Amino acid sequence: MKQVAWITGASSGIGEEICKQLAQKGLKLILSSRSEEKLQDLKKSLPNSEEHLIIPLDLEHSSDFPDLAKQAVAEMKRIDYLYNCGGLSQRAEASETSLEVDRRIMEINYFGTIALTKAVLPIMQAQKSGHIIAISSIAGKFGFYLRSAYSASKHAIQGFFESLLLEEAKNNISVTIAYPGKINTPISMSALGKDRNAHGEMDHNQATGMPVEECVSILLKAVDKKKKEILIGNKEIKAVTLKRFFPKLFWKIIAKQSAT
Ligand SMILES: NC(=O)c1ccc[n+]([C@@H]2O[C@H](COP(=O)([O-])OP(=O)(O)OC[C@H]3O[C@@H](n4cnc5c(N)ncnc54)[C@H](OP(=O)(O)O)[C@@H]3O)[C@@H](O)[C@H]2O)c1
Fold this sequence. Notes:
alpha/beta; 15% strand
């Protein structure tokens, strides 16, 4: 029986590339994000197009997820992997970010992600197998300029999914947390600035980041090896080791980095 992977954030960037590489490997996919039209275009372009399923969802509407998970398993019979890639970033200082924006980022990146995970968990528990992948960020390892809410949401992801990893080992469910650095995707375009407005610019950091194909190929290898965590990026990911072992130097260097 073919393995089934459910991917959120499938309409763009890392999630879209995961779909391309997994379809190439012969998996059956469930494609999710808000933009149904983009998901249709992606589905048409994938190998074995007719085997894949589109389930549009909004990570802000998590009360829908138990029903969507029932629909997914009714149509695909099982769910072997859940790749939680849907999310959005931030480009505004904490002092100019409204609480409404803080809450929205937390709702999408954290509550939406854990709500879908909780909807899928009983299915994996019944199968006695499964693998859940959470996409945090290097900003989930340390705070950064213009990223207070984003960084907080990604730190929360780490706490939740590390706990889940320990708890679900008894059910033969694995967890991998990925911490990408600067990856070449359009994430800065939709990042929330002040007052819910999208930043609308392709940042230099993203434009010069690791190609998304390389990022996803590293991620999929880590998932195959059931790694608990994986840092993915170019030299920026060395900052994580620097913070741990040379914190004074870390804060000196990080303070000089460009936010965009
Ligand atoms: N690119 C980087 O440098 C980088 C670095 C570290 C971590 N990450 C993380 O990697 C993940 C993927 O980001 P990316 O770089 O691939 O960005 P992206 O190209 O902007 O893709 C984001 C995806 O999330 C979906 N999404 C956004 N809001 C949503 C909502 N309310 N409900 C459902 N889906 C929603 C978008 O689809 P729709 O608009 O169709 O809903 C899109 O498919 C994110 O969690 C991000 O934080 C990225």
